[in-house]
Amino acid sequence: MDHPRPCGCKGRRTCLQCEKDFAIERIDYRDVFQTCKAYSYCPHCNRIYPGWDTDRVMEAHAGGHDGQPGEEYPGVLVALDWVSEDEERALMKGIDEMPWDGSQSGRRKQNFGPKTNFKKNKLQLGQFRGFPQFSKFVQDRFEQVPLMANFQTIEQCSLEYTPERGASIDPHIDDCWIWGERIVTVNLLSDSVLTMSRYSAEGNATRYNLHLVDRYQDKLITELADDASMERFENAVVRIPMPRRSLLVMYGPPRYQWEHCVLREDIRERRVCLAYREFTPMYLQEGSEYAKSEEVFCKAQTFWDHLQEEVPPVNGQA
User: Fold this and answer.
1) Structural domain span for residue 151
2) For the residues 99-127, what does the mean pLDDT come to?
3) Rounded mean pLDDT of 190-216?
4) Is residue 21 part of a domain?
5) Above 80 in pLDDT, residue 4?
6) 42-87: per-residue pLDDT in tens?
7) In the chain, how many domains are there?
């Protein structure tokens, strides 16, 4: 099971097809999280309230959340209706005109970015030569979001989730050696939810390359939470809604001190998201590793016509 299966899954990652073909018993994180206290994030007031159902919490905003004050959960921005219906159609037309590649846990992907090896901390240009032209307006619009000031996209990835394949993604933290603080997602076609669970690095300090955050912690947008602040979320999950056509930016404590996942149960219709990544400060212009990333930044300024040019192959890990 450690080798890729025909569906694209390997190891503990599974989809409906390989669970059937190989009689794999899957970890159901929904069951795991049922023992936790659940909160849901309200994008209207930027606070969290008790409850698993994000739709109910969002609807309760009009009534003042029944007088509940809510709690702060810094490090999240959800901008509703960030792209229009026409823009969504144009994005999906371009996305579906390009080939998809299989991915783990029932997903499909289209990846545009450098070649990375997270275990060896090795960066290569690979086949990266920029991004499809039809999506350029999304990156241009980042400049209108104050939180996205100076964000320099160096990876753009289309990810498709469908209920027919049982698509999901297990709890994880995005790599901290190469990907910077702001984790950016544009959600298309249907609503979904990001489920956050507190992470403890005890006994495995190098997982996700989290130990490297110490090198640039003084450059983070917001300070990480202290132990006392995290203690109140012992045995808790936070549910963050990702409504159709919304923008989600995750940074600070949710980026580094919580794992995030998309549960299979939260994919009810086809969902496609555009995920954007930036480099860590070490690879920025004044960073110690800039010589290794300069060529990537150069290619990231290029936008090409997907109907006129051959689509480059998806970069794998070195």
Assistant:
1) 75-304
2) 95
3) 92
4) no
5) no
6) 999 999 999 999 999 999 999 999 999 999 999 999 999 999 999 9
7) 1
Domain for residue 16, yes or no?
no
For residue 315, pLDDT beyond 60? no
| 174: number of Cβ within 10 Å | 19
Q: Is residue 28 part of a domain?
A: no
Does the residue 92 lie in any domain? yes
CA dihedral 301, 307, 312, 316 (to 10 degrees): 90
pLDDT beyond 50 at 28? yes
Residue 160, classed as helix, strand or coil, is: strand
Strands (E), the chain: 37-42, 47-50, 71-72, 76-79, 101-102, 108-112, 115-117, 122-124, 131-132, 155-161, 169-172, 183-188, 192-198, 236-242, 247-250, 258-262, 271-277, 303-304
Q: How far is CA 164 from CA 5, 130, 205, 264, in A?
A: 18, 32, 37, 10
Neighbour-count burial of 257, counting CB atoms closer than 10 A to its CB (0-12 exposed, 13-18 middle, 19+ buried): buried
CB 57 within 8 A of CB 257: no
Other C-beta atoms lying within 10 Å of the C-beta of residue 117 = 14
> Quick one: tokens of 209?
């390359």
CA angle (153 as vertex; 289, 292 as ends), nearest 5: 20
What value does the mean pLDDT of the chain take? 94
Quick one: how far is CA 37 from the chain centroid? 23
- Residue 127: half-sphere exposure toward Cβ, Cα within 13 Å: 12
What are the tens digits of pLDDT across the range 140-178? 999 999 999 999 999 999 999 999 999 999 999 999 999
Contacts of 246 (CB under 8 A, 6+ apart): 43, 78, 79, 80, 81, 82, 186, 187
